[in-house]
Amino acid sequence: MKTINLKTFFAASIIILLQSCSSGNNNENAQEGTIRTEFLANVKTVKATLSNQKQELILSGKVESDPNKVVSYTPLVSGMIERTYFTFGDHVTKGQTMLHIRSSELSSLQSELTVARRNLQSAESMHEDRLISEIELIEARSEYDRVQADLSLYGDNLGNGIFSIKSPITGFVVANNASPGSTVSEGDEPLFTVADLSSVWIIANVHAGDLQSVKQGMPVEITTLAYPNEIFSGKIDALSQVFDPEEKVLKARIVMSNKELKFKPEMSVVVRLKNETNQNSLSIPSDALIFDDDQYFVVVETAPGEFEIREVVQQGHFQRISYIRSGLSENDNVVIKNQLLIYQELKGK
User: Fold this and answer.
1) Rg (CA), the chain
2) Which residues contact 199 (CB under 8 A, 6 or more apart)?
3) d(CA 333, CA 221)
4) Cα–Cα nearest to 284, from 296, 292, 275
């Protein structure tokens, strides 16, 4: 372990500097000597102290639509899209017309409805004239209601085999696979999807090594590049018990209110978890750490003006505090200002 008396080191440095600069003037030498003296006075230390360890875990995440507030329209018959009234990302309201579909299958149903309507009108007229019984009138009305109900499953009847498809909910179009003139078949992929984004899910990736630090109900802070100066607060509502087979992570779900629509589906976010343990650990300011050769070091003042390098091992950090597993003892004086200059001189000895 290398030690040095800093006052001796800088006194020697001043002598060498004065000799090498003998061609210079006395004002320059006096100024250099003043800088060295100020350096000695500005070395600062703090004591390594035991404190209750806090942890901050950073997880990557992504915004997703709440699946309980997403509705897709899948074609129920074969036909052709006559016209569309929306594009991807549009805001739509419940009952708003989304598209028109022309179908020969529906055309036959429309013909059935026309016949059923005429039969009902005739039955009502004949019942008024007491030419048919109440039962026969009820049968005619039931047949009309049945055909009309069958047609309503496919949309609003516009006649000529054309039906109007409405938006089932108020929200935003998050998927669009419909284009005018294209043909569709029963059971094809959804023609459009509408999502209510008043609340969204944030799905955070939890790796196996972080699993012990993540629990259901833990508070979290969420940030995103879109709003760099804002921090959104939430909590972990659920933690999957099965690893994702592709990403090899567990998924933590955070339900967020999104009344201002700041969170967009597929937006990347950073999720921070803060946890206070019952473990007392030595703590020092993170700025005191020197990273060199894939290891962490600190400079410790062992006596007034005498210093040595210590290799340390971290066991965590929180904000600007680092927790040390080994390499330091309680009340060690750790240099927190000008430590890098001292480290370089000690390392060169």
Assistant:
1) 38
2) 66, 69, 255, 256, 257, 258
3) 34
4) 296
Burial status of residue 258 (CB atoms within 10 A of its CB: 0-12, 13-18, 19 or more): buried
Q: What predicted TM-score, i.e. pTM, was given to this entire model?
A: 0.58
Residue segments in the chain with a per-residue pLDDT below the cut of 70: 1-41, 53-56, 153, 275-279, 349
Q: State the Cα–Cα distance between residues 190 and 338, nearest whole angstrom.
A: 65
82 Cβ neighbours under 8 A, 6+ residues apart: 99, 100, 101, 102, 162, 180
From the list 312, 307, 347, the residue with the least C-alpha distance to 6 is 307
pLDDT at 5: 56
φ, ψ dihedrals at 281, nearest 5°: -135, 155
Nearest 10 degrees: Cα torsion 224, 230, 234, 240: 10
Which among 147, 174, 206 is positioned nearest to 69, based on CA atoms?
174
Question: What is the 3-state secondary structure of 128-180?
Answer: HCCCCCHHHHHHHHHHHHHHHHHHHCCCEEEECCEEEEECCCCEEEEEECCCC
**If you search the block for the tokens 């404190």, which residue do you land on?**
51
Q: pLDDT value at position 8?
A: 54
Residue labelled with tokens 């933690």: 239
CATH entry 3.90.76.10 includes domain 75-195:
no
Q: What is the spatial distance between Cα 66 and Cα 202, in angstroms, rounded to a whole number? A: 9
CATH of domain 57-67+197-277: 2.40.30.170
Residue entry with tokens 């250099």: 32
The per-residue pLDDT for 254 is 96
Show me where the domains of the chain are located. Answer: 1-42, 57-67+197-277, 75-195
Q: Which residues of 326-347 are buried (b: 16+ CB within 10 A; e: fewer)?
A: ebbeeebbbbbeebeebbebbe
Q: What is the pLDDT of residue 84?
A: 95
> CA quadruple 66, 67, 69, 74: dihedral positive or negative?
positive
Q: What is the structure's pLDDT at 92?
A: 96
Decide: helix, strand or coil at residue 87: coil
Sequence-distant (≥ 6) Cβ neighbours of residue 92 within 8 angstroms: 86, 98, 167, 170, 171, 172, 173, 194
> Whole-angstrom Cα distance, residue 191 to residue 165?
11
